[in-house]
Amino acid sequence: MKLKQLEMALQRLSGFPRPKAAFEQYQTPAPLAARLLYHALMKGDIEGKQVVDLGCGTGMLAIGAALLGAESVTGVDIDERALVVAQENARLLDAEVTFLPADLREGGCEGRIGTCDTVVMNPPFGAQKAHADRPFIDCALSVADVTYSIFNAGSIPFVEAYTAQRAEVTEMIGGAFPIKRTFAFHTKDVQEIEVEILRLKRTV
């Protein structure tokens, strides 16, 4: 499957029916998701691999990984209503994904999720609650050797400091995350946020 084909397929997926501001529930834009996944594919981190999508929401990254030939894909999210939509989305594209409800803030990821080859994720940026992305980073590093994650632009110094002696940032890809007016505090119909896709390689 080519990049453009993946992007077009992912654009068919439904988003959050009732998004929650506290969880920063914004569907990952299909072009950004496709770019992350295709880069991971080219690096040998998707096809034939065990992939986990942390904070999968309605399944954008998880389903994309399945379409690109992952051996197995698990999507994990705190919101069971979102997982219902994710399951419907997977059926729509005939993608085989296992969806698991879990609160990553509780820790113990390895015991509940198991290990995998690659984590893909679009964690909360911490706009509503400071450091909301940290449990996702911790979980990713506990279950996988390689992680691809979306962060606010300029996050590399924080990520490098937070993951020091655990992982290293091996690549950065710039991108844009258009956020449509979703919640009452939004003042624009669309606000484009500059983001970075970071590849983390575990060192311990």
The CATH fourth-level homologous superfamily: Vaccinia Virus protein VP39
Structural class: alpha/beta
Architecture (CATH level 2) name? 3-Layer(aba) Sandwich
Gyration radius over CA = 15 Å
According to CATH, what is the topology?
Rossmann fold
The string of secondary-structure elements, in order, is HHEHEHEHEHEHEE
Q: Kindly, what is the distance between the CA atoms of the first and last residues, rounded to a whole number of angstroms?
A: 34 Å
Task: Please give the largest β-sheet.
Answer: 7 strands, mixed
As laid out across the biggest beta sheet, the strand order is 3-2-1-4-5-7-6
**Share in β-strands:** 25-35%
Average per-residue pLDDT, rounded, comes to 90
- With helices defined by DSSP (H or I, 4 residues minimum), what is the helix count? 7
3D architecture notes:
- Residues 33-131 form the Methyltransferase small domain.
- The structure is a single chain.
- With 204 residues, the chain is of the alpha/beta class.
- It has a single domain (27-202), classed as Vaccinia Virus protein VP39 (Rossmann fold).
- It contains 7 helices and 7 strands, in the order ααβαβαβαβαβαββ.
- Helix 3 links the parallel strand 1 (50-54) and strand 2 (72-77).
Question: Which helices and strands, and how do they pair?
Answer:
Elements: H1 3-10, H2 30-42, E1 50-54, H3 60-67, E2 72-77, H4 80-92, E3 98-101, H5 109-113, E4 118-121, H6 134-143, E5 146-152, H7 156-162, E6 167-180, E7 190-202
Parallel strand pairs: 1-2, 1-4, 2-3, 4-5
Antiparallel strand pairs: 5-7, 6-7
Helix pairs in contact: 1-2, 2-3
